Amino acid sequence: MTNAADELEQDVEASRGRLDRTLGDLQSRLQGPGIPRDLGDLKRSGQAAGEAVERFVADVRVNPVPALLIAAGLGLLVYDVFRSTARRRSTALSAGSPAADRDLAANRADRMEERLDEALEESFPGSDPVSVRITK
């Protein structure tokens, strides 16, 4: 029993130590140069993205024909994906694939009520007046 208590105490102390370190790390990030440094990094990454876009636009201005060919190729790829998806969908419908359950004739609301009444009649024969009162 003493060993178990000692082990628990050691585990608690270790957890407290980890918690103290984590809190210390958080405090150091929130105080001092942590937040301004993070904001500066964010600003630099935004500037880098802006520079990359500017370089891309400059490359397109210098070489418009290859850029147009690349854009046309990407457009054809997107068109082909949408066209093949639509073709697969129409082929599946015309090939006589099974209809969705909600579209089946047996699942119409009036037919379902009729089938439920039949099932109740089988489960609780109508000769029993109590079951008729329960089910109706």
Describe the structure.
The chain is about 80% helix and about 0% strand. By secondary structure, it is mainly α. It has a domain at about 100-135.
Short description:
The protein is built from five helices and no strands. The chain is mainly alpha-helical. The chain has a domain at about 100-135.
Give the N-to-C terminal Cα separation: 65 Å
Low-confidence stretches: none
In N-to-C order, the SSE pattern is HHHHH
- Helix-strand category: mainly alpha
SS element count, helices = 5
* Share of residues in helices: over 70%
- Rg of Cα set: 36 Å
How is the biggest beta sheet arranged?
none
Give the DSSP E fraction (strand runs of 2 or more residues).
Answer: under 5%
User: How many β-strand stretches?
Assistant: 0
Averaging pLDDT over every residue, what do you get? Answer: 78
Shape: flat
In quaternary terms, these chains amount to single chain
Write the layout of secondary structure elements.
Elements (H helix, E strand, L loop, with lengths): L1 H29 L3 H29 L1 H31 L14 H15 L5 H7 L1
Helix pairs in contact: 2-3
Descriptive labels:
136 residues, mainly alpha, 5 helices, 0% strand
